[in-house]
Structures
1.
Amino acid sequence: MLAKRIVPCLDVDHGRVKKGVNFVDLTDVGDPTEIAAAYEAQGADELVFLDITATNEKRSAMVDTIRKVASQVFMPLTVGGGIKTVDDMQALLKAGADKVSLNSSAVREPELITAGAEKFGSQCMVVAIDTRWQADQNRFQVVVNGGREPVDLDAVEWAKTAVAKGAGELLVTSMDKDGTKSGFDLKLYQTLTAAVDVPIIASGGCGALDDFVDLFQDTTVDAALAASVFHFGELTIADVKQRLREAEVTVR
Amino acid sequence: MIVVVDYDTGNTMNVKKALDYLAIPNQLSADPATIAAADGLILPGVGAFQKAMAALAERNLVPVLQQAAASGKPMLGICLGMQLLFETGYEFGAAPGLGILPGEVVPIPAKQGFKVPHMGWNQNQAQRSNRFGQVFDGESTYFVHSFYVQTAARNIVATADYSVSIPSIVQQNNVVGMQFHPEKSGKVGLAGLNAFKEMVADEHFSRN
């Protein structure tokens, strides 16, 4: 059986790892390669690197970062943030990334997913969706530009479209839950897993070991992503996996 | 020297990075003479079966690889590179593979609760206790594939359970295949590449 994956996320700014709490405040926590190696040793199943810089030189900086990490750390690597063209994807995949993750650029230009899928295969194409509950519309609303700009798009409909366009995996962040440490947004993931057939990585809200158990017992998502609880050592990946094993969730 | 066959497929650089990390002498090459002179060959591969066979044919590498295998040279196919070792693939219609190992490459059957592609970490069960079976028995490795190999049980070193039992490691004499990505499977994956290096060294020693 496939193991449920535990995925730390590293926010990278000019080659240094940062963590934006609620997408705003930044705290420097270090060198990407060293942190990646530490997470590999802890038993992480995959790493996501999110490029949070917004300047022109960033593409080459991120490619360089991935090249360095991939020469020392031998696990699946996903890279997202500011990828706008097939050439951007190719540079990152060639540097050692296994998947690229599109967010705002895919909302603006869904054909970009298809172009990437045709060239590299759907298994390389992750679409990241940031969403929050929109009560007056009774829907999960898509938010782009690093969680700053709501758009008139239903997240579940967008998930279906993204998969139809060639996404092989979805990385879905609940902005309502992100930073709250009150558990994953189970309703969001139950809705999404019923709507699409690709693997889903859940993100946002974990604060305690049992949050992971609830996620994997109450939804059929494939992976859980977290950042600050791991970065600041509040939880270790080994502890998360131990608790999941006790709850009879298959982990590596 | 181990040569990684360089035919413009996805995981080539990551295989090289893993060999470099392990300090295993290696080079990338698509040159038939270099490939023929190698002590051991690694055939990487990501993507579609027919396109990969066409890329090998374009570089005149099909007979070179077949002769290398027939000569007893240790050869390791990884992911699609393993699938190409077999006789026939069925992605977008039937197409011939390298035909070095007997068997076919067919779609993973769709079944409730089993998404295709088979992507993520899955556990290997050794069916034979040879050097690769010993490294990987009970260990989880990273898979990404939509097709799997059907071959005689005697060629299967290890399997992984999914909607069907998937041959995760195959071997016939000097030719080995790994359906997962050892270059993306952490410590145990690196141990598997090291085991191939030892196989190459043993073969080299016994010949010279």
2.
Amino acid sequence: MGAGHGGALSARYVAGTSPVHRLAPQVKLVAVLAYALVVVATPVHAGWAPWAYAGYLLAVLTVAAVARVRPARLLRSLVVEIPFVVFALLLPFVTRGPRVEVLGLSLSESGLQTGGALLAKATLSVLAATVLATTTEPRALLRGLERLRLPAALVQILGFMIRYVDVVSGELHRMRVARESRAFDGRRRGALRVLGAAAGALFIRSYERGERVHLAMLSRGYSGRLPGGPAAAVPPREWAAGLALPLVAGVVLATGMLLG
Amino acid sequence: MCNKVEGVHVPDGFLDAPTSVATGVLAAGTVALALRKAREELDERTAPLAGLTAAFVFAVQMMNFPVGAGTSGHLIGGALTAVLVGPWTAVLCMTVVLLVQAVLFADGGLTALGTNVTLMALVAVGVGYGLFRLVVAVLPRTRTGVLVGAGVGAFASVPLSALAFVALFAAGGVADISLGAVAATMGGIHVLIGLGEAAITVAVLGAVLAARPDLVHGAAHLRDAGTLLRRPEVVASR
């Protein structure tokens, strides 16, 4: 699966052979979740919190370097944060409590801290999740979620979504090409009706594709369950390697708690 | 690319741990219930049909719709999906979309997944579909009635899930902001977003009702009234 078809999902993955790429997907999922938990658990108003964030940042950037994730990719991934940057920048102005003067502006002290902490925590989690998505194929993630005992029915739905989302997005893209080659102008009156019809047609095509897929599966003996291969056990060493990230973060947190 | 700025998902660290855990438990319970109930809506075709519908929701959320006054909006889709395929299947579709966005796009924190599922799958779908049913029960049994119901449900689902977020923020927000201000700002912005959501929902649903009314879960009562023909069953003929 290449990115050439405009595939939204598979384009996130960059093939590689780094140690991070080779880790079992469930190990990486648990590691990223545990890392996010440690980051979130860091007290907002502690004086040592900025040092802890620096430690977490160093840890996740080290993993990104080992995984050979390009810095540009990490930076681009932060775009999802933009709405929250706006919110975090507003916090010093709208939070109640004692005020400090910064560059002639009266800002709330606790608002500054909270805004900074929100931004730091969201950024760190986004970085970790980006390393996960860049080093793990969507299908492998699916397998990882299955091993982590996500309900089988949900795994199947997720599987069909991941398998067909690029097909469905491709149809949407072709509809757009067809529209625009017929001089469609989105700003004109009645444009919503045209786009509504396109989205409606997309739903019908997706649903009918689902029906065809189901019939094809029935003809191949589908009985409500998808057969999966035997689960390879993950050796303890791999778990230890994978969980190094949250462990380091946990040590940073514990050090801060004890010394701070 | 999926650089949506409007369908804001709660990131990690925005709500405190007890609130995140509580919404996580609520979300898990909802999904477990939905997994059982969706079988009644779609029988054993659940997996492929819900999966393809989730792919549709994911793709359509990236479309730019002109919603009047020179502005464009994006569809969130909770109410539309509920009317199209039924509320329980819609809960599953929205959950899967949120899961993919969190794991593959870092959009919405992993530790906030329960919160996001609660807001977008439980509250948005619940409010959207509940109001849809209410309005449809009151209005005459016509296609217009279905469209009006879906529009009302879609409109209300957006500001109400925003207010649900404000309630969560009141219970476990990490910032000390005056709640009235948050509620007013969030409510105000989301009333506008809700109007866009309603316009898009009606446009899309109208198109589906015109072409394949038999696929629309929320229009089943029109079929029973004999206004619309049922889709012919596939019969194996020799």
